[in-house]
């Protein structure tokens, strides 16, 4: 049975996928659309990896977001901001990525994960960290 810490990471990763999907649909510049679509694909692969661990444990896959989740709210800000331009949205992408990376770091620093979950989270953390660097890069380009 999956730990609640692991399930939370899967939920927030799903929210991130949805945020990237909506942001890439709403971005105004072709370059931003392409960059967000690339991150979407990479984040979807991370979600698939996390969901595979849930499935291995006999749990249901995460296929919908957490309406009340903090990350969901951050990503909703991202998609709303794209309506006001790529620059504002870049700030929200950066904030969402910082939040998600923090969640993964906290999980890895705590002893709440099973050994198999920890291995999957460590693997996913590499992509999550890449997403956080992407958020920083996009925000810096817009400054």
Automatic annotation (TrEMBL):
Organism lineage string: Bacteria, Pseudomonadati, Pseudomonadota, Alphaproteobacteria, Sphingomonadales
Species whose genome carries this gene: Paraurantiacibacter namhicola
Listed name of the protein: DUF2383 domain-containing protein
Start and end residues of each DUF2383 domain: 2-110
UniProt entry tagged with the keyword Transport: no
Pfam families, per the entry: DUF2383 (PF09537)
The keyword Hydrolase appears for this protein: no
NCBIfam families reported for this sequence: PA2169 family four-helix-bundle protein
Keywords: Coiled coil
Coiled-coil residue windows: 33-60
